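Input/output pair, single chain:
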Amino acid sequence: MESKREERIEDFIRQNRARFDEVPPVDHAERFLSKLNRKLRHIISIVPYLVRVAVATILIFSASVLVWNNFIRKDRNEITLKEKVTLTVHNVLKKLFAEAG
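Output:
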């Protein structure tokens, strides 16, 4: 199968030999690259996929934090760090005022 393809390519080259010997116009490279760039931009646009991945990541992260905080975390019914700090500061101030007064 590969040999048939090679034969067809060779036949095409032989039949169109004169076209292969032609010199391309001066602006050929710029026109070719601009057409290629337009086609690639149209075909391969990764931005929508990145936005979808970012949204999905944010949703999954938020859902997992909510599930962990409300259902899985073992110390969810215990005192929080903020409450511990407040109580500690309150107790220290209470001692200071008791010693001063």
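Residues 14 and 20 are 10 Å apart (CA to CA). Residues 2-43 form one domain.
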